[in-house]
């Protein structure tokens, strides 16, 4: 469903804190690098679980809660608020979680090359988003939205 100008006039744009997103990405990258280097499939599964829970309910997003409940109140990080929808970011996180579920399954099944490759893919894409602000999952979300609207 397309958003009309009238909808925008009635409904204010969503507020999104990019600092929470960056803390989330940083935690994902750090934990997955540790899992990759130390060959710890349980850690990949743990990160996948945290990402799934955060996708299902933002209140359960453990890494973002670290920011909201600890780092921000302590004054260690400041909010970076933007008028944007969180849905593309949740989609990207859910997609990354699905890739990590597949990586975990591969690692536990002894397919270490596949599991480590999928883990590395999530590390690289989260790193690109963190460093350059390009969210591949958000791009996919927007392209799928355009396809839906074209119908």
Task: Give a verbal description of the structure.
With 151 residues, the protein is mainly alpha-helical. The protein has one domain (17-150). Helices cover 74% and strands 4% of the residues. Strands 1-2 form a two-stranded antiparallel ribbon. The longest helix has 22 residues, at 87-108. The termini are close together.
Short descriptors:
disordered N terminus; mainly alpha; two-stranded antiparallel sheet
Largest sheet report: 2 strands, antiparallel
Please work out how many helical segments DSSP would assign. 7
Overall body shape: globular
In terms of DSSP E residues, the strand content is under 5%
Number of domains: 1
Brief account:
By secondary structure, the protein is mostly helical.
How does the SSE layout of this entry go?
Elements (H helix, E strand, L loop, with lengths): L4 H6 L4 E3 H21 L2 H16 L5 H10 L9 E3 L3 H22 L3 H21 L3 H15 L1
